[in-house]
Known about the structure:
It is a single chain. The chain has helices at residues 2-16, 110-113, 122-127, 171-184, 206-210, 216-223, 238-244, 268-284, 314-322, 351-366; strands spanning 31-33, 38-43, 49-54, 57-62, 68-73, 79-88, 92-108, 131-138, 158-161, 188-194, 254-258, 291-295, 329-332, 378-385, 388-394, 400-404, 412-413, 422-425, 431-433, 435-439, 442-446, 455-458, 469-471, 480-481. The relative contact order is 0.11. The chain is elongated, with a radius of gyration of 25 Å. The N and C termini lie far apart (87 Å). The chain is an alpha+beta fold.
Amino acid sequence: MRKLSTLILLIASSLSALAVTLPPVIGNHMVLQRDLPVPIWGWGDKGEKISVSFAGQSKSATVGKNGKWMVKLDKLKANSSPSTLTVKGNNEIKVKNILVGEVWICSGQSNMEWKVAQCSNSKEEIAAANHPKIRLFDVPGHTVHPLPQTKGPNKGEWKTCSPATIGNFSAAGYYFGRRLYQELNVPIGLVGSNWGGTRIEPWTTLAGFNAVPELAETAEKVKAYTKDTKVKSSTPSAIYNSMVHPLTPFALRGAIWYQGESNGGEGITYYQKKHALVKGWRNAFQNPKLAFYWVQLCNFKQPGTTPGGGDGWAKLREAQTQALDIPHTGMAIIIDLADAHNPNDIHPKNKQDVGGRLAQWALHQTYNKKDMVPSGPLYSGHKIKGNQVHLSFKNIGKGLMVGKKEKLDPTQEIKNGTLKHFSIAGADKKWHWAEAKIVGGQVVLSSKEVKTPKAARYAYTMNPADANLYNKEGLPADPFRTDDW
């Protein structure tokens, strides 16, 4: 009987010694971030000694009382040759076919979730998606939790980009990553975590809410959560806790974000929430310079016909622009990408240009390609001279132009074209359509109806379908207003 008891104890001991595990995001076929410290973590038995070997480095750790261990690999150089990471405790794990390059998370609501298979030219794009140095990790399912989860309720796995794997991945994310790969020629890792119809608050961390004084009330609510708090997809922090926190602190270069439709009635409050989102994620991923690029909302519903505008998503787009005061951020302007024949479609199918314009920012700012203009013209100031308003811009590139964008075709310059959707108002705050002309790097406005103008607006409406100011690189100007009326 004593021998049987000893045997049972030995079997139980050997089983517990096989407890070393890794999170799904650290798995075969992954891409590790170059030029940053790289956390590798997992779980094991309390007090167990762990060693991690990769690319000539060897790091060690001891499993803590909470059952977790972590090491940080020193900065890695980009490497397109598959390598193996070895984790040893009481058991051994080999993670194979690893590349080293640039890693980005792709997040937001349905326009980020929208798959390659659902977007323009899907058949041709899927057939051509043979990119073994682009790797994809999609967080599966839609889940929530009241508290930050370390392991997460669902598993995911890295996949090599191919016609067999790309169809169900984020189209905006894929086209962003593909352009980075084409320009940088290093492996690209893309992590998808998205959920259609969701607001920004459930994606935001408690630390993020705490970082913005105007959101203190929301922070207090999140602080009060317990494991038994009932949460849903609209509950602040609930999606982050379940679908992003288990990925942390995986080393990332940055994030791309396409969301805002579900917060579409907001203005300055969305600006505050964007600050909270970015600050919270930078803290969670242990990267204070985590690049963060978002998509400004596209045209939607019937074209705006009143010169003052201000309807629908006008203030939301303005808040998205204002949030560019956060360092290491950028915004893809896409008011020209909606389907003119179907303005009620909230999901523009041209995600190629969405991803490309996000990549334009990243290439310029994150990857220091300063000869590349990051976006279309951004309003930078104005002067009133008599009956005219002189508007100045940054990001004018090779100059301003009247342009026209059709589907996936490059933007065409309209020689001697007429600028549209500019308006001006006097002290009476009554808006009138303006005659607009490009003069050098400026746009000059006037109207017979306004003798002494005080303010100007451009494309400041839910659907500024005829807005047509571009730079000569073919990128559209940002909607704006000079007033705060």
